[in-house]
Amino acid sequence: MIKKIALNEGSEFNLTQAVNSMIYTFTSKAAFGKKYLEQEEFISVIKQCIKLAGGFYIGDLFPSAKWIQNISGMRPKLEKFSERIDKILENIINDHKEIRSRRAKDGMAEVEEDLIDCLLKFEDCDSDTYFHLTRDNIKAIILDVFSAGSDTAATTIIWAMAEMIKDPRVLKKAQAEVREGFDRRGRVDEAAIDEFKYLKAIMKESLRLHPTVPLLVPRESGQVCEINGYHIPVKSRVLVNAWAIGRDPKYWTDPDKFYPERFIDSSIDYKGTNFEYIPFGAGRRICPGMNYGMANVEQVLALLLYHFDWRLPNGMKNEELELREEFGASMSRKGDLYLIPTTSNQLLVI
Ligand code: HEM
C-alpha cells in the first residue's frame, strides 16, 4: 500500500480507500495466513453487512412485528449474506484442516500458525475438556475479528490524519518524532513505534473526539436503579454515549479542540478505568481487540507520517477541511479523505 501511495506522488490520492483496504489485508493475513480466492468476496459481503447494520431500519422500532422484517427485504438479504459468509469460512477452515494434518504428518504442525490454526486446536480437543470450540464458534470469532476490528481501526486512522492535516503544527511535530525515531535506529521497526509518545497522544485525542463506536454496545439493566434522578426500570436497554462523555466540559478543558498534548504526562488511558474517556468501552463488554486495533492504527500512522508529506488538493487551505461525521455502525468521517502525498527527502526502505 505504501508503494501504491508512492506511485501517486504529487497527485490526488484517496487515503480513505487505501487505508481501508490495507487494514482488511492485515486482518486477512492474521486470520487466514495466506490469500484465498474467495477472500475479496468475503470482505465485500462483510462490508455490506456492516452498512446494513448501521443504517436506519424501520423494523427496529417495532421488534415484535415480524412481517416488517420480511416486507422490508432486510431479513432475506441478511440470510443470503449469512449463508455466503458461512460457506466461504467453511471452505477456508477445511483448507486449514487439510494443511494442518499434512504438516502434522511431517512433524511441522506448529510452523507459522495463523488465527484459524490456533482456533482449530480447540475444535480438535475433546468436547468435554475445559475449553472446546465448535465449528460455529470458530466462524463467529473470525467474523467478529473482521466486522468489529477492521472498520474501527481504518476509521481511527482517517480521523487522526484528517485532524493532523487540519492542524499543521501537530502534523509537523508528529512527523519530526517519527522521522527522528526511525532514522536514529536506521530502520522502520515496531520497537521504535513503541517510543512515539506524541503519536500515541494523537491517537488518544482522535479517539476522544471521534470514538468510532460512539454509543458503545447496548446494555440491559439487571436491576432497578436511579441515575442522576432518572428512574431506570429493570431490563431497560441502556445506551452509553462515549462521544458526549469525551467532550464533556466537566472533565475536559476546551473539549472541542484537537490538542494531543492533553494526554502527555497524563495517566488517563482507554483501558476502561477512567470513565471520562471510554473509546473502547468499559466493563465486561470492553473491546477485546483494543491492543491489536491500536497496534494497527499506530503502525499505519507511523508509516504514513514517515514516508510522505501531505497536503490538500485543489489549493484547499488546511483550516477549510471539514470534519463532519457520517451516520453508520462506526462513526466515520463524512466523505473520503483525498490528499496529495509527496515523498520526503530521507527514506529508509519502503
Ligand atoms: C481502533 C480500533 C477499535 C476501536 C475504537 C474499538 C472500539 C470498540 C468499542 C467501543 C466496543 C464496545 C465496548 C463496550 O460497549 O463496552 C467494542 C467492542 C468489540 N470489539 Fe472493538 N474496537 C477496535 C478494534 C477491535 C479489533 C481489532 C477487534 C478484534 C480483533 C475488536 C473486537 C471487538 C468485539 C468482538 C467487540 C464486542 C465485545 C462484546 O460485546 O463483548 N475491536 N470495540
Automatic annotation (TrEMBL):
Keyword Cell inner membrane carried by entry: no
Any one GO molecular-function label of the UniProt entry: heme binding
Any single GO CC term annotated in Swiss-Prot or TrEMBL for this entry: membrane
CDD domains: CYP71-like
The protein's required cofactors: heme
PROSITE patterns the UniProt entry points to: CYTOCHROME_P450 (PS00086)
Compartmental location: Membrane
Binding site for heme: 287
Membrane topology label: Single-pass membrane protein
Pfam families (UniProt xref): p450
Protein family (similarity comment): Belongs to the cytochrome P450 family.
Protein name, UniProt field: Cytochrome P450
Species the sequence originates in: Trifolium subterraneum
